Amino acid sequence: MLFKATFLLSLLTSSLALPISGNAVEKRALSVQNYSQFTVSGGVAGNALAEVNAKFPINLSDPKSVSAEDVAILKAARVVAESAEVDAGGFNDAIKAAGGQKTTAGAALQRGKIKNKVLKLQLQVMFLTVEGAQGKDTAKQLAAEQKKLANNVKLDKEAAGKPSTAINFQGSSQP
Ligand SMILES: *[C@@H]1O[C@H](CO)[C@@H](O)[C@H](O)[C@H]1NC(C)=O
Ligand SMILES: *[C@@H]1O[C@H](CO)[C@@H](O)[C@H](O)[C@H]1NC(C)=O
């Protein structure tokens, strides 16, 4: 009973710092969201990386403190972002349906797709950084993903100010 009440309280206060074993203090920064809430593809191009960081406010200066729950959310969100690119009803389909990247609608969707790649890759960089700091050997994969991320951030910046279109895609960051 006491355990149950304590557990419930910890759920209610999960956004606050929770002491864990040792002297580390673990914080939960993220909550489960639908893709429609964490997509950054709408609006205009140019600021995708900052938009992703605002939607997933984990502290990469202190990766050791990131909780396992937050890592699980980052991973689940990355899977959905990937699906939103390549699976049925995703960006690739939408761009095709719009007549390819050269049409006005297709070009705006392509910019949304690049922003979605920034989302996908930054999520991956985030959890690989955290897992690396927490003892897993992620260095090689992290370097590869950082390179892809830098490439897509560059493409996004090159299109700065131009309209980008999001897609309606089902999925959530529920681990
Ligand atoms: C996600 O979408 C589903 C279906 O529309 C909805 O029932 C659910 O409440 C949404 N989840 C969040 C976290 O908003
Ligand atoms: C992030 O972590 C660093 C290093 O521990 C700390 O100095 C900083 O205050 C943290 N930032 C936030 C927003 O919590």
Automatic annotation (TrEMBL):
Signal peptide extent: 1-17
Keyword Kinase: no
Biased composition range(s): Polar residues: 165-175
Residue span of region Disordered: 154-175
Protein keywords: Signal
Name of the molecule in the record: Small secreted protein
UniProt source species: Cladorrhinum samala
